[in-house]
From TrEMBL:
It is an enzyme of class 2 (transferase). PANTHER family: PHOSPHO-2-DEHYDRO-3-DEOXYHEPTONATE ALDOLASE. It is found in: Cytoplasm. Its EC number is 2.5.1.55. One of its GO terms (biological process) is lipopolysaccharide biosynthetic process. It comes from Lutibacter profundi. Keywords: Cytoplasm, Transferase. Its main location: cytoplasm. Pathway: Carbohydrate biosynthesis; 3-deoxy-D-manno-octulosonate biosynthesis; 3-deoxy-D-manno-octulosonate from D-ribulose 5-phosphate: step 2/3; Bacterial outer membrane biogenesis; lipopolysaccharide biosynthesis. InterPro entries: Aldolase_TIM, DAHP1/KDSA, KDO8P_synthase. This is 3-deoxy-8-phosphooctulonate synthase. GO terms for molecular function: 3-deoxy-8-phosphooctulonate synthase activity.
Length: 272
């Protein structure tokens, strides 16, 4: 898909991977703008096409007392302010059919969570907004099965569709990335590797998902070497106080070093 179809996206001629990055959830305006500004500074320096990510609400929670959001409209307006302040596109995930049209008024890319990617009504509703639809591969699905999710978007009259691999369940409390699936899914749509959720450790006894953020660069290097079209990561200036998914987030202070290393690998791959 031509990235230039996304409003406000930059550096599309750099021959780099593109990046979806930001906090797991929108916790407030100040934090969202702070994180967006930092990522933009780094991606502009490295000429990486960048889309700011933030969930306007979190519906898939382990416990009833887990953080779900600051209010739908409030969070969506913050995402819109990120766009107007920094002239960058945004992506958020949706969970209900009614979320599709509502979120489409504020963001440029609609993301279907992995647990919901087989929900036909949700996928179709996202597709019919005309926005780019990012389908997260279900942790329970084979790479080849994603062709059916992609086809639902296309059959709804929307060719703007991506796939994001976020790992596959390995036992009850671990995830693995099968890199053989990347080129397979690229036959169906541009494919992104989620380098933070792939390191989650779900189903903990505490009801709070764990993770292995120290392996983010390991996962990312392999993905870039394999030839993914884009990368997805969640980052926060202090993951220990993040209200959602802090255990597998990248600390924002490590972002530039990580992306610099990945861009170097990409340049090497481009010369082969």
């Amino acid at each position: 898909m031509n990235l230039n179809l996304i409003p406000n996206i930059k550096h599309t001629d750099s021959n780099n991977f593109f990046l979806l990055a930001g906090p797991c959830a929108i916790e407030g305006e100040e934090m969202a703008l702070h994180i967006a500004e930092h990522i933009l500074k780094v991606t502009d320096k490295l000429k990486i096409p960048f889309i700011f990510k933030g969930s306007f609400k979190k519906a898939n929670r382990s416990r009833i007392d887990s953080f779900t959001g600051i209010g739908d409209e409030k969070a969506l307006k913050i995402l819109k302010k990120v766009t107007t302040t920094f002239n960058i596109p945004t992506v958020t995930d949706i969970h209900n059919v009614t979320d599709a049209a509502k979120a489409a008024e504020y963001v440029d890319v609609l993301q279907i969570p992995a647990f919901l990617v087989r929900q036909t009504d949700l996928v179709v509703a996202a597709a019919k907004t005309g926005k780019v639809v990012n389908l997260k591969k279900g942790q329970f699905m084979s790479p080849s099965a994603m062709k059916h999710a992609v086809q639902k978007v296309k059959d709804s009259g929307n060719e703007k569709v991506w796939i994001t691999d976020r790992g596959t369940m390995f036992g009850y409390q671990d995830m693995i990335v099968d890199y053989r699936g990347i080129p397979e899914m690229q036959q169906f749509a541009p494919t992104i590797l989620d380098i933070t959720h792939s390191l989650q450790q779900p189903n903990q006894n505490s009801g709070v998902t764990g993770g292995k953020p120290e392996l983010i660069e390991t996962i990312a290097r392999a993905g870039v070497a394999v030839g993914v079209d884009g990368l997805f990561l969640e980052t926060h200036f202090n993951p220990s106080i993040a209200k959602s998914d802090g255990a597998n987030m990248l600390n924002l202070k490590y972002l530039e070093n990580l992306l610099s290393n990945l861009v170097a690998i990409k340049k090497t791959i481009n010369t082969l």
